[in-house]
Known about the structure:
With 363 residues, the protein is mainly α. The chain contains 16 helices and 7 strands. The strands form 3 sheets. Strands 6-5-7 form a 3-stranded mixed sheet, with helices on both faces. The longest helix has 23 residues, at 27-49. The radius of gyration is 21 Å and the shape is globular. It starts with a helix and ends in a 7-residue tail after the last helix.
Amino acid sequence: MKTFQSALTLLSLLCAVPLSFGQRVTTIEQKERAFEYYAQTNKAELAICAGNIELAQKYYTDAFAVNPNKPFSIDLLNAFKCTMDLHQLQDADLYLRKLMSRGFSPQMEDNLYRYYKGDDSVFIHKILRKYPNQLWKLEHEINIQTAEMMYTDQEIRKHEGASRPSGNYMTDTVYAVDAANARTLRKLFDKYGGIPNEDIIGNHFGGPSFTELIGHHKGGFMGKGPSHYFDTMLLSALITYDISPAFVAMMFSKGDSVFMLPWVPGESLLMPLSVFYAHFEGQYSSQYLSPDVEAQINAHRAKIGLCTLDEMRTKQDYMIAQKKGNRGSKYNLESSLIGYLEASNADEYEQWKQREVYPYQKK
């Protein structure tokens, strides 16, 4: 177990007061700090993949030293699990306390009890009863309105799909609803000064509803013409720790798009930034691209603090391997995955690999 001094140091990092107006930093300095945070958390996740939990915890500690005010909940939760596995209980107490200050949902409690039994379970129970759980943050206006929009969104998609033999639900009606949702969401974000972070809207298991609404709005209105409402807002949120690079990559995962980076005038970002996986009867395979294309994608991924495609594959393979067990993956890693091709039979799966995997797969 770490010393009490170590726990006090960690507490000072996680409970640090935000910068005052007299301590303003430049946009470039903000970007450099944010990218250092993303680099350290990436190293931590790769260490988890390698089974080196002690090294992972070191990288999380380094990451929180760079970003003490607004670490992402996924990182705090992984760091909590690292300290539990290492029996560093004072640090575990501090991480869970920080998570509870954002609102620790019953689903997140269940997630912990799934992996920790006996004395560990008793320890977690004591923490959850010792500190106030800010569940009221989960009832933020943005969460309530976006949940309502998501319900309508899904019902309309179901109706449009069921009324067509092909099952294609992307009709003009769906595009219109997506555009209306996007306008409402933009008004909410403007009201609260941009995309809200987890300290404001609470700590959702799987993310708040607005993330999927942004994902549905791919820039089209009535099926015609681009109108990227959220590009600049999303990219700006990267350097204020309000949204993660993996989330941005997933939002614009389909179709070629060129965005301008707000912190470097004239510098562009080329999307998409990820690759597909194919799935058939418990088997998964990652798409591979030519070395030149992968190098180009990696260069653009680096512009927003993302790991390389190979590192993303390592994380995704780890998650897939862990989820084959009954309890799933204890650690949740940001993989930027674009989704699966669900092969209908073995021949289709093999044909996909012949086309998308074998030509450029690293031996």
